[in-house]
Design the sequence.
């Protein structure tokens, strides 16, 4: 009775979720993938005022219209509410897509977001890893991608830029090459763009729907507007494809949480104000990134400068231990939480993910404590 099936047995626990419950009142948490701010006050008010009843399966029409408009403003897309599906989170959006379409092989980033392999295995599909090598600043080598696709013949590919865990961004030109290749080969692209608004040094974000019709774009309101725990995401794509994602979304979720939908409508209706809010956060996070990267390199944790998202991914190879041993040691001895890079795939081994979505004081305190521990290794 209640023997877990083979699919569930194939799921590894997320190293981030494993850390979630650990630590005490003095722990410095540099593991967390969530913004340290909440939504603007007027969004709070709209959430408070909203009702508690169920909403439509596809999400509130007004919200879908507003998202379509925002994508017009940000990326020049000419889409409407039928091209948008509101989901219970970015994670649920990805799982609804996996449930709707996956079957054969799916190419995913290595290192990459921890939910991808679990979701692919849960729907009975096979994972194929696409290297994002540190020698290449954690970007895709398009020739290597082509070779892997010729050999493995995947039906779908998940791309994620800016990347969790490395913060790297693939440039527009090579993304266009990838999009054209996938079009030719009939490989569907799922582009996870939950960090699209966290790009630094005025870097361009290429939305995959600007480059090809053959893509589903996943986004989340968890990160940008600061609604992590309220859980809200969305998918953008061609109307007939969105209809099929909705077929899986309904038995998984029925409908997305209603209150945050009203909050996001308020945020997007006041787009100029929200853009100002987001610009301020992006500037703050860029400053924190620079601060963290400088200290990491100073204390001997070699670290490239991430171009987006809110994570650094320093190299801990010289300490002669696995990244899981290193992060355990740092938690035990420094009382600081950092995430084991090996949990993001084999090419994450030898690294840890350290988040700067926290105050400068926390960053400083956490890194000082880490410095003291690594001096003893
Ligand atoms: C790359 C990536 N995709 C998707 C998600 C899921 O976002 P959500 O919080 O909306 O489930 C995350 C969250 O950390 C992420 O890092």
Sequence:
């Amino acid at each position: 009775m209640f023997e877990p099936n083979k699919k569930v047995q194939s799921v590894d626990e997320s190293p981030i979720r494993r850390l979630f419950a650990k630590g005490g009142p003095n722990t410095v948490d540099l593991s967390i993938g969530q913004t340290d701010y909440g939504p603007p006050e007027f969004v709070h008010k709209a959430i408070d005022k909203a009702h508690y009843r169920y909403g439509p399966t596809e999400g509130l029409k007004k919200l879908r219209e507003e998202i379509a408009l925002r994508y017009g403003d940000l990326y020049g897309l000419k889409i409407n509410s039928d091209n948008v599906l509101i989901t219970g989170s970015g994670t649920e959006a990805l799982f609804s897509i996996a449930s709707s379409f996956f079957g054969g092989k799916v190419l995913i980033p290595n290192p990459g977001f921890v939910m991808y392999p679990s979701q692919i295995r849960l729907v009975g599909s096979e994972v194929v890893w696409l290297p994002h090598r540190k020698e290449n600043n954690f970007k895709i080598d398009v020739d290597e991608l082509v070779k892997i696709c010729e050999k493995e013949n995947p039906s779908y590919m998940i791309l994620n830029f800016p990347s969790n865990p490395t913060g790297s961004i693939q440039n527009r030109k090579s993304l266009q090459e990838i999009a054209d290749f996938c079009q030719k080969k009939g490989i569907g692209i799922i582009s996870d763009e939950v960090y699209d608004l966290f790009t630094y040094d005025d870097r361009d974000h290429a939305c995959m729907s600007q480059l090809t019709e053959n893509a589903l774009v996943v986004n989340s309101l968890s990160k940008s507007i600061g609604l992590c725990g309220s859980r809200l995401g969305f998918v953008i794509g061609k109307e007939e494809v969105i209809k099929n994602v909705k077929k899986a979304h309904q038995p998984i979720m029925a409908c997305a949480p209603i209150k945050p939908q009203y909050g996001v409508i308020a945020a997007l209706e006041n787009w100029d104000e929200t853009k100002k809010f987001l610009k301020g956060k992006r500037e703050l996070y860029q400053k924190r990134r620079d601060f963290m990267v400088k200290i990491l390199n100073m204390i001997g944790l070699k670290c490239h400068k991430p171009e987006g998202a809110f994570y650094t991914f320093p190299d801990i190879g010289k300490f002669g231990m696995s990244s899981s041993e290193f992060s355990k040691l740092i938690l035990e001895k420094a009382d600081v939480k950092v995430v084991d890079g090996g949990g993001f795939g084999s090419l994450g081994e030898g690294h840890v993910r350290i988040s700067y979505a926290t105050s400068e004081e926390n960053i400083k305190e956490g890194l000082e404590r880490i410095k003291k521990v690594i001096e003893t290794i």
User: Anything to note?
Assistant: The domain at 41-270 is CATH 3.40.640.10 (Aspartate Aminotransferase; domain 2). Residues 33, 89-91, 113, 160, 164, 192, 194, 220, 222, 228, 233 surround pyridoxal-5'-phosphate (CB under 6 Å). The chain has a mean pLDDT of 95.
